[in-house]
Amino acid sequence: MWGLRLSPKQRQGRAWEDAALAHLQRSGLVLIEANFACKGGEIDLVMRDGATLVFVEVRQRAGVTHGGAAASITPAKIRRLVRAASVYLMRFDAPPACRFDVVAIDAGQLAWLRNVIEG
């Protein structure tokens, strides 16, 4: 699904994104687009939760030192996510309700954090 010429680190990252996607789909979300990229940033997963558009950032860390996966989302990363979401929303005449979720994976344990980034 993701391409053939990925480094081992990129392959592992894609595997974590696949795990996050599977978890969200089991919870009823529907995939709209994976790895939306624009000049301003990238969104790992764009999904639909009922009538709400959900922009999902997937973060993984081997352990919880230094605050863990969720804490690795810096203000600069948030700005890039919001910028990318703004570009994505340009395709709509009337933008739908939307939110930012994070799937944080620490030491193999997945946590879905809803509506955690304010845009």
Chart the SSEs and their pairings.
Elements: H1 8-26, E1 30-38, E2 41-49, E3 52-61, H2 68-71, H3 75-89, E4 98-106, E5 109-113
Parallel strand pairs: 3-4
Antiparallel strand pairs: 1-2, 2-3, 4-5
Give helix % range: 25-40%
Estimate what percentage of residues fall within beta strands: 35-45%
Name the shape in a single word: globular
Q: Which class do the helix and strand fractions yield?
A: alpha+beta
What is the β-strand count? 5
Order of helices and strands: HEEEHHEE
Assign the CATH architecture. 3-Layer(aba) Sandwich
Major sheet strand order: 1-2-3-4-5
CATH level 1 name: Alpha Beta
Textual characterization of the structure:
The protein has 119 residues and is of the alpha+beta class. It has one domain (8-66, 73-113): 3-Layer(aba) Sandwich (Trna Endonuclease, Chain: A, domain 1), CATH 3.40.1350.10. 32% of the residues lie in helices and 35% in strands. It has three helices and five strands, in the order H-E-E-E-H-H-E-E. Strands 1-2-3-4-5 form a five-stranded mixed β-sheet. A hairpin with a 2-residue loop joins strand 1 and strand 2. The radius of gyration is 14 Å and the shape is globular.
Overview in brief:
With 119 residues, the chain is α+β, with helices and mostly antiparallel strands. The protein has a single domain (8-66, 73-113), classed as Trna Endonuclease, Chain: A, domain 1, CATH 3.40.1350.10.
